[in-house]
Amino acid sequence: MKDDTAPRARDVIFGTQQPRIQQRLDDLDPDLGAYIRDFAYDTVYDRPALDLKVKELIACTLLVSLGSPPELRTHIRGALNAGATEAEVRDALMLCVPYLGFPRVVAAFEVLRHHLASKERPAPVTGAGPVDSGDQ
User: Fold this and answer.
1) pLDDT band, very low/low/confident/very high, at 6 (cuts 50, 70, 90)
2) 62 — phi, psi (to 5°)?
3) CB under 8 Å to 78, separation ≥6 — which residues?
4) What CA–CA distance (Å, rounded) separates 133 from 135?
5) Distance CA 31, CA 28 (A)
6) Which of 27, 51, 63, 134 could form a disulfide with 118 if both were Cys (CB 3.0 to 4.6 A apart)?
7) pLDDT value at 136 more than 80
8) CA-CA distance, 75 to 56, in Å (whole number)?
9) What is the pTM of this model?
């Protein structure tokens, strides 16, 4: 059962990106967006046996197996938001090599590299035009 004082898993995983991510899903199909929010995040992610960091590291490895870079980018950010260190994310991705092969893992490390690089960029100057954060 969910502790009503704790933040929802999706609040932690998506962080400040939550409205944009939910809108993207709703734009694809409102029912799909609701199913993902209500079932995946507000039901499955609320199960108590694993902590959110572990769930997100597992999600990252599953998304490497599926070859889903936009979703992997979201869940790498989510794992870090849930308390995983960069080293833990790297080890989770590396664990995929013997099962999935180097091409998938190289692509996953590229997603991680892109995410980390976007975090290191200075904030845009107001009025300087749009900046692509690279996060999906």
Assistant:
1) confident
2) -65, -40
3) 12, 13, 14, 15, 56, 59
4) 5
5) 9
6) 134
7) no
8) 6
9) 0.81
Mean pLDDT over 90-95 rounds to: 98
Q: Which residue segments constitute the domains of the chain, with CATH numbers given?
A: 8-49 (no CATH), 51-119 (1.20.1290.10)
Residue 95: phi, psi to the nearest 5? -60, -20
Q: How far apart are CA 108 and CA 61, in angstroms?
A: 9
Residue type, 118: S
Please state the length of the chain.
Answer: 136
In 3-state terms, the chain is what percent helix, strand and coil (to 5)? 70, 0, 30
Confidence of residue 82 (pLDDT cuts 50, 70, 90): very high
Tokens of 105: 């893992």
- Take residue 86 and report the two structure tokens written for it: 């960069």
CA–CA–CA angle 136, 35, 3 (5° rounding): 90
Residue 63 has pLDDT above 80, yes or no: yes
- Contacts of 125 by beta carbon, 8 Å cutoff, 6+ apart: none
CA atoms of 110 and 7, how far apart (whole Å): 30
